[in-house]
C-alpha cells in the first residue's frame, strides 16, 4: 500500500500556500475554506459534494473553490487520492485580480469542477516551483498567467458565484445572530 504523504509549503513572496496530498484514503467531511482553492486531481477517484451538486472526480479534473463553498469528499472504491492545490487568501486574490483585470473587484469561480488542460499545464509548474522553494521571478508571472486564464474562462463577479441562500437558512442565521449569547438548542434553530 502506498504511504500517505501530506506536504504544505507557504510561499512568502506570493503569499499563497501550495499543498500536495499523495496516497490519501481519508474522507473529508463537510467543510469550507476562507480562501480560494485551485486544485488538480492527479490520481484516484473521489466523490465530491459541493453547493448541492455531486461530482465524480478523476485524474485531470480541476477543482475550483470560492471562499465559503461547502464541500465534502470521499473515495470511490479503493482509490487513493493524489492531489495538488493552491490556497489563495481573498486579499491576495483581490490584488492579483486587479493586476490582471485592472479592476479592484474580487472574482469568483462560476464552475466547481472543470477539465482544462491549459490551466492544468499552468498550475503544475507553478505548484512545483512553490513546493521546491524556488525564488525565480517567473513564479509570479506564472501565477498571474494562471489567474488570468481562470478569470477569463471561469470567473465572474464574486457575488454571482455564491449560491442563493434559502429563506429558512437566512431566518436561522438571523435567529443565531440575535440570540448568540444565549444557550440555543437545535430544535429552536429548526423552528
Give the distance, in angstroms, between the N- and C-terminal Cα atoms. 49 Å
Number of strands: 12
Instruction: Give the C-alpha Rg.
Output: 18 Å
SSE run: EEEEEEEEEHEEHHEHH
Instruction: List low-confidence stretches.
Output: none
Which sheet architecture does the biggest sheet show?
6 strands, antiparallel
Strand arrangement, major sheet: 1-2-9-4-7-11
What is the average of the pLDDT values?
89
Q: Hey, roughly how much beta strand do the residues contain?
A: 35-45%
Structural class: alpha+beta
Helix content: 25-40%
Shape: globular
Number of H/I helices: 5
Could you explain how this protein is built, in words?
The mean pLDDT is 89. A hairpin with a 2-residue loop joins strand 5 and strand 6. This protein starts with a strand and ends with a helix. Helix 1 crosses helix 3 and helix 2 runs antiparallel to helix 3. The strands form three sheets. The chain has a six-stranded antiparallel β-sheet with strand order 1-2-9-4-7-11. It is α+β, with helices and mostly antiparallel strands and 191 residues long.
Amino acid at each position: 500500500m502506498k504511504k500517505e504523504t501530506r506536504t504544505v509549503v507557504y510561499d512568502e513572496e506570493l503569499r499563497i500556500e501550495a499543498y500536495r496530498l499523495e496516497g490519501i484514503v481519508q474522507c473529508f467531511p463537510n467543510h469550507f475554506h476562507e480562501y480560494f482553492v485551485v486544485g488538480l486531481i492527479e490520481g484516484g477517484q473521489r466523490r465530491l459534494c459541493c453547493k448541492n451538486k455531486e461530482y465524480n472526480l478523476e485524474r485531470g479534473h480541476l477543482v475550483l473553490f470560492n471562499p465559503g463553498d461547502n464541500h465534502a469528499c470521499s473515495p470511490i472504491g479503493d482509490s487513493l487520492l493524489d492531489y495538488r492545490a493552491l490556497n489563495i487568501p481573498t486579499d491576495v486574490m483581490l490584488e492579483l485580480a486587479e493586476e490582471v483585470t485592472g479592476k479592484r473587484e474580487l472574482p469568483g469561480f462560476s464552475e466547481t469542477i472543470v477539465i482544462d488542460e491549459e490551466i492544468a499545464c499552468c498550475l503544475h509548474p507553478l505548484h512545483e516551483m512553490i513546493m521546491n522553494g524556488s525564488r525565480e521571478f517567473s513564479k509570479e508571472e506564472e501565477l498571474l498567467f494562471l489567474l488570468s486564464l481562470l478569470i477569463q474562462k471561469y470567473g465572474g463577479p464574486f457575488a454571482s458565484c455564491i449560491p442563493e441562500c434559502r429563506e429558512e437558512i437566512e431566518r436561522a442565521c438571523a435567529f443565531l445572530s440575535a440570540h448568540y449569547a444565549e444557550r440555543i438548542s437545535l430544535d429552536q434553530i429548526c423552528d
